[in-house]
Amino acid sequence: MKEERCRDRALRCTLATALGFATALLLWPAVAVPARAEQRAPGEHGRRWSIEWDGTLRGEVAVRTDRPRVLSKERNLIRLRAVAAGPGPLAVTVAVRGFYDAVYDLTDRYPEEVEHALGSEGTLREAFLEWSRGALSIRVGKQQVVWGEAFGRFLTDIVVPKDLREFLLPDFEYIRIPLWMAEGTWTRGDAAIEAVLVPDLRYSLVAPLGADFAPRFEEPATPLIVEPTRKPPRTWRTIESGLRLSWIRSGWEVSALAFSGFDDLPVPFRRIESPPGGGTLVVVMPGPARLTTVGGTVSKGRGRAIYRGELACDFGRWFPARSLTEESGVVRADFLGVIAGVDLALPRRSTLGIQILHQEAIGSSAGRLVGPSGPTVLMLRGLLWEARGRWSAGLEAHFGLDGDSMIRPRVGYRFTDGLQADVGLDLFAGRPESFYGQFDGEDRFYVTISYLFGAASPGAPGGGDSARRPSPR
Question: Domains in the chain, start-ordered, CATH in brackets?
Fold first, then answer.
């Protein structure tokens, strides 16, 4: 049945996708110009509400380079954001994002569960009220808060969960999942204090079984039953909270942070039963677990280089146990992560970021658990070449101590300030049980066309966001 539907709808979906995106590219420039002009009018007298808006249109096509060499992605995405600022200290921000991926109507390679999870989506990305006066700023509503400054991996970026349905390939702004929360920042000179209260409890998203980037697990040796995932109850006792202090002294930018909440992924608690017919049955009960994280960041510029460091320690994180004799199937241990890196400004407007990540379970129970995949990684990211303000070439590469790797070369061309095309490769290698090697066999070639309009700056494809980020005070 699905095969017949795919054949009937293939041509229609392809034409509709191409026609819709092309029409949007042609029509939006005419609409976006008045929006820029309208932004300036309300601010002339300062007694009216002013509205600024921006958005992104993006088309993404990916083809597998491993067998079977078939289309694996044909996604069309739109993002819209509006910021309304009043004559006083109030401002309101609302942002929405939606996508449709035609590949799930053009092929029958994927199960229904994958089509449901990745075929289309519409989400409210931001909806918050901001009040600012003097040194104090408060945001209440759905938003992102970004504490980490490293690229490639999340270490101190711990406030919001992540959308990992495409592993770590999308922009981090796309990966972060906004939450309903209250956030406040107070600044004095070169120091700042930021506090967050998060009653909205959500897990990170992972791709369902059968998707290209679904996590790979070993086949269980005994019969297995997985119960529905339990979520923490929403009471005042389960509200997540965090505090971040930052300051600048003698050119050093330093921050210290603490966050008390829940693990972003459900912990696979288990029990072992003996069914009436004999044998052993393992029942997995994914559920929430409390987690406290403390850490900090440091950076300093010197000449054409910026030196960076991050540290985070999770106290009481649960890990899968090595032995079936563990009653609950999990072991509790502290988990330490460290990043050291440098960002270099090279000749001809080229840049290169180099960082090393090491993660390790510590404590007396560390030997009884299944440790994290990819504990030590060398990561590189750079703009390697730029010509005439239009052509550019970049590279991001991760090399694990386990011999696994992820390499992502890219070439881009900027047609106008808001319109850019990129072509690139996502390449994985390594053993199946390694962090990057689990996706060896999912290599792909991709083409992306992005158009930014309205008040958005012509930066990286995907446009900006209103996330609260660490920044020099």
Answer: 2-454 (2.40.160.10)
